[in-house]
Design brief:
This protein has helices at 4-18, 21-52, 70-79, 84-102, 104-111, 122-130, 158-164, 166-169, 195-201, 216-234; strands at 140-143, 182-184, 206-212, 237-245, 248-255. The model is unreliable at 1-11, 21-27 and 258-263 (pLDDT under 50). It has 263 residues and is of the alpha/beta class. The chain contains 10 helices and 5 strands.
Length: 263
């Protein structure tokens, strides 16, 4: 799909070349502009569509990094339209705009560091669970939003489970002094858990959910699926607290009889 516009432009360029050298010279700049536009917009559009349709969560900056070069090429084409000193001034203006759009310099001024704030604040999410007054031994259900997490629905591979738990077991670790059970959740359908995990969750009075979710709608869907699982394993589970940390949600579920207030 991403190559279709490029192939169409290649055919158009060939037809323009057949009409004569002069006509081809007139058409070539526009063909270059169209090709660069496809280069810049088609790959991100495909990634966004795959994510929006829930085919694969590919709407991540690193997967579209190749398209980020296209604006530089477009600037070069634009500078090439000028002559003499004007070209130098336009080139300097383009360089200044690129530096401002890159955001690194502005981030250094406003945040005191070149790297901007993380899109997913797992450190604060893990700290919230570690510092909670209740549920120190409750199981923690982790949805890391990794692409590999989709395989958890059908795979029982130990290394895959450990990999999907890395956000809470590597740099930022859940309190190691407790005997908390960690359960990695599938990315697409987090409500599908192993029978062994379901049996381990059942005896507890509650559970923690630490889930990466890009939108409120996605978070609500994850919470509903997990809540349904907890209801099947040991009775109704009520949401007592929920916090958001830059794309990572921490939700506390507690089982209690209806009408009894939360602690």
């Amino acid at each position: 799909l991403a190559l279709a516009p490029a192939l169409a432009l290649a055919v158009a360029a060939r037809q323009a070349a057949r009409r004569g050298r002069r006509d081809a010279a007139d058409d070539l700049p526009w063909l270059r502009v169209l090709l660069v536009a496809c280069w810049a917009f088609v790959p991100p559009a495909c990634l966004w569509a795959l994510t929006a349709l829930d085919v694969a969560p590919l709407w991540v900056r690193r997967y579209a990094i190749a398209a980020q070069i296209a604006p530089l090429v477009a600037m070069g084409l634009w500078v090439g339209l000028f002559r003499g000193r004007t070209r130098w001034w336009v080139g300097l203006a383009c360089a200044a705009m690129f530096m401002a759009a890159n955001g690194a310099q502005l981030s250094g001024i406003f945040h005191g560091r070149v790297v901007d704030r993380p899109q997913q604040d797992w450190r604060s999410a893990v700290a919230a669970v570690n510092n909670a007054a209740v549920g120190s031994d409750w199981p923690a259900l982790v949805r890391s939003d990794l692409i590999e997490g989709r395989e958890l629905e059908t795979s029982d591979d130990r290394e895959l489970r450990e990999y999907c738990l890395l956000p809470v077991t590597s740099i930022y670790r859940l309190d190691a002094t407790t005997r908390r059970r960690l359960v990695p959740l599938p990315t697409t359908r987090p409500g599908r858990m192993r029978s062994a995990d379901l049996q381990a969750i059942a005896p507890h009075d509650g559970a923690w959910l630490i889930a990466a979710a890009r939108t409120e709608k996605s978070k609500a869907s994850i919470v509903a699926q997990v809540q349904a699982v907890l209801r099947r394993t040991g009775g109704p589970a009520h949401v007592t607290t929920q916090q958001q940390f830059d794309g990572v949600w921490v939700v506390c579920f507690e089982r209690r009889p209806a009408g009894r207030p939360a602690n």
